[in-house]
Design a protein that fits this description.
Helix content is 43%, strand content 23%. It has 445 residues and is an alpha+beta fold. Helix 1 packs across helix 9 and helix 2 runs antiparallel to helix 10.
Length: 445
């Protein structure tokens, strides 16, 4: 199923991206020969009245829009005005930009609808503060509500995490406002090469704050496909009772036990519809970057129910939702670019770079979490795809835009030898990027 969700996710985003190129090309008077989702020999194709072939190919790692272009094949004289290369640099820049812009517009639409639908968010109140952590040094106390970071309002734990992620790799002091006993208190949070060595950074854990959350029920809401839990026979609806003869008091106790039981047998007692059942589970061994080996079993708990005063309900108007969607998308664009730059400068570990294997896994996990979680993942991936394609690297949309911009400045195209050399460099850079991403993917398996 993970592969299926990956194909669905990539196909949706490819259609959105390529349709942007297609739509602007048509309006610029360029003849589109083919609109393909996937690479390779088409499995299915159909032509419209304009002569455009729409095809579905078997390799679901992208797609393309093929336009009439004299650089690729001879063009009949009466079709010269419909070929891509005959258009002005501005028209070609618009066509090249349209794909990434479509990705951003899709993200704005998704976030607008999600915000408009309303949500309940946990108020970011600290439950515990780890001794010696950045939060402890800053003076954060249990019971404090984190109301603003570096001047930016934080209404939820998600807001807190996004703000903390924006400081990736930085060494500086950040202002932190907390609400304590109903009054605002200004604190200073020291950061030292913040999260630079972390893989899949968890800013709250690194900060040393345990969020105030309602107690997690011991009932299982989901058993992951192919997991140790599935192999053991655990089922959705089972309530955890004991493990290895010891009572399980909290979900955290269960997590700690499994983490410390990598590759060893765990006798799990569950309540299944009023009947006590015992099964034997063998948690899978997972090796972290630090070399630590932990166990993973693959179950999710039922969502906890929080007291009303622990949550904040948000129901923005359509206009406010749209503005929030634009702001969210822009923040993700800036965060992605900032992270890529810091990765390039060595301020952030390249282990955070992900390839198709990790994307496929996240796609499967998000789909298992429901439609809203999956659509949220699509919006996030759409922004990443848009940013990646705008990088000024030959072979990508950003590289083409760079060539056309140079043509505007010079009044003529760059010499063919320069373009060929740049494309070769671009291919090498992309190949290196793919190798690193695939290596990271494999190392996470």
């Amino acid at each position: 199923m993970t592969l299926l969700y990956f194909i669905i996710a990539i196909s949706i985003l490819v259609v959105i991206h390529e349709y942007g190129h297609f739509w602007v090309a048509r309006r610029a008077g360029v003849q589109v020969l083919r609109f393909s989702v996937g690479f390779g020999k088409p499995l299915f194709s159909v032509k419209d009245r304009h002569g455009t072939e729409y095809s579905l190919a078997p390799i679901p790692l992208g797609g393309y829009v093929k336009m009439l272009d004299s650089r690729e094949a001879p063009v009949a004289e009466h079709l010269r005005d419909q070929e891509f290369n005959s258009k002005s640099p501005w028209a070609r820049i618009a066509i090249a930009s349209a794909g990434p812009i479509s990705n951003f517009l899709f993200a704005i639409l998704v976030y607008t609808l999600l915000f408009w639908g309303g949500s309940k968010q946990f108020i970011p109140v600290a439950s515990e503060i780890a001794e010696g952590s950045p939060a402890a040094i800053a003076g954060v106390l249990p019971g404090d509500e984190l109301s603003a970071i570096d001047g930016e309002s934080t209404q939820s734990w998600q807001d807190v995490s996004w703000e903390l992620l924006s400081f990736l790799g930085e060494t500086r002091t950040v202002s932190l406002e907390v609400i304590r006993d109903g009054r605002p208190v200004e604190l200073s949070l020291p950061l030292n090469r913040w999260l630079s060595e972390e893989e899949g950074p968890d800013p709250l854990s690194k900060l040393g704050i345990t969020p105030r959350m309602p107690e997690i029920p011991l009932q299982i809401s989901q058993v992951m496909e192919g997991s140790a839990a599935e192999a053991a026979g655990l089922q959705t609806g089972d309530t955890l009772v004991a493990a290895n003869g010891e009572e399980i008091a909290t979900w955290q106790d269960w997590v700690s036990l499994i983490r410390n039981s990598a590759g060893t047998s765990v006798l799990v007692e569950v309540d299944r519809a009023g009947e006590l059942i015992e099964v034997e589970a063998w948690p899978q061994s997972i090796t972290l970057d630090s070399g630590e080996v932990i166990g993973r079993i693959g179950v999710m708990p039922v969502a906890p129910v929080a007291p009303d005063d622990w949550v904040r309900e948000v129901h923005p108007s359509p206009v406010k939702s749209f503005l929030m969607g634009v702001d969210k998308t822009w923040s993700l664009i800036v965060l992605t670019l900032d992270s890529l730059w810091k990765m390039l400068m060595g301020d952030v570990s390249v282990k955070n770079l992900s390839g198709p294997i990790t994307i496929a896994k996240v796609a499967g996990d998000s789909a298992s979490g429901g439609l809203i979680v999956f659509v949220n993942f699509l919006a996030l991936l759409s922004v990443s795809l848009g940013v990646l394609n705008l990088l000024p690297v030959p072979m990508l949309d950003g590289g083409h835009i760079l060539f056309y911009t140079a043509e505007l400045i010079r009044g003529k195209p760059l010499p063919e030898s320069v373009q060929i050399a740049a494309v070769k460099v671009g291919m090498m850079l992309l190949l290196m990027l793919m190798i690193v991403a695939f290596y990271n993917d494999i190392s996470r398996l």
